[in-house]
Amino acid sequence: MSKLEKLIQKLCPNGVEFKKVKDVFKRIKGTSITAKKMKEINTPDGKIKVFAGGKTVINAREEDIPNANITRMPAVLVQSRGIIDVVYYEKPFTFKNEMWAYTTDNKITVKFLYYVLKNNIQKFRNLASGMGSLPQISLPVTEEFVIPVPPLPIQSEIVRILDNFTELIAGLTAELAAELTARQRQYNYYRNKLLTFDNEVNIVSLRDVVKRSCSGATPAKGTSDFYENGTIPWIRTQDVKFNEIYEVDSFITEKAVRETAVKWIPENCVIVTISGASAGRCAVNKIKVTTNQHCLNMEIDPSKALYKYVYYCMCRKYSELLLKRRGARGDLNSTLILDTKLALPDLQVQQRIVNVLDNFDVICSELNIGLPAEIEARQRQYEYYRDILLTFSETGAIVSDEQRATSNEQV
Predict the structure, then answer these.
(1) Which among 12, 95, 110, 382 could disulfide-bond with 51, CB atoms 3.0 to 4.6 Å apart, if both were Cys?
(2) Which CATH architecture best describes the domain 17-149?
(3) 202-344 belongs to which homologous superfamily?
(4) pTM (2 d.p.)
């Protein structure tokens, strides 16, 4: 029998009390403050955290916050608009008055409330649906919410377990993220090493190995015949992210190809984005596609260079391309890209380099898939045990898997 089970058996063998949140906790109101004012008072050395809607959080000096209602004890903030969530915070803070917070004299009880509300956050989000363009919950959603109120030693043990689990998950996430970053740095190092040659290798302009180049087009958005039931793959800049493109989310119609400047490009072109924040990113299309006008599409002459070799070279040239961007949006153009200088060894050497980088790329891709999946699995495991710890039966015992399944079916 675990320590928690012993506590339940000893302190509440006949059941756990359930109460509404408003009957257990003191509700705290926020501060009336505009988004403009928050921008004005935001400062790195501010000691007061100010929470706004969504993910907006600033630091401010208390004297700069108009009519500040500062919370100086541990509390649970209910983010009620935009992003529906709860935040546990112990240091002095305030928040926009569209939100609210809960506190009480005992820190453990406040942290216990946080875990209970967090465990039910999807219920609150479901209640917010259909309330306008931004999700929003009303005050009664949490005020009237009924929670278990076990004796304090039980709350303390549950908080201890969940705190430890939270710390474990955070540590694992940081460790896996560091592993992914290290492998990416290692990959970049070897790619740069393999693509660095002595003076005996020819240096050419990218245009010298390009057989044909073109940009695409965006059919008029207001013409439904260009998009509705479209079957022709259409690449946008968000699809170009140092990758091989096998499928896309956007499609246009044959009519769009006939009546607009959109052009088909063959598979295995090197695509470089030329506009805005994505300018300089590159990809290879592994299927026959069309693109928008923000993509420069280059068919490589196979007698001079391997398309995959050129792709790896352009990945390496990303930082160089960023320095060439022009104008307020930071755009490139075909001339700036095609003037890029490349080292061009013979085709056999290019193939050996491509083979090595392809193998390394597979390893990094597997890590990119595997490590986030591992993090997600651990997070689901954490949420599962949190649910178990915070679900009580009327007899006071923690609900078993069988009881939970029956309960869910009834709901």
Answers:
(1) 95
(2) Alpha-Beta Complex (3.90)
(3) DNA methylase specificity domains (3.90.220.20)
(4) 0.63
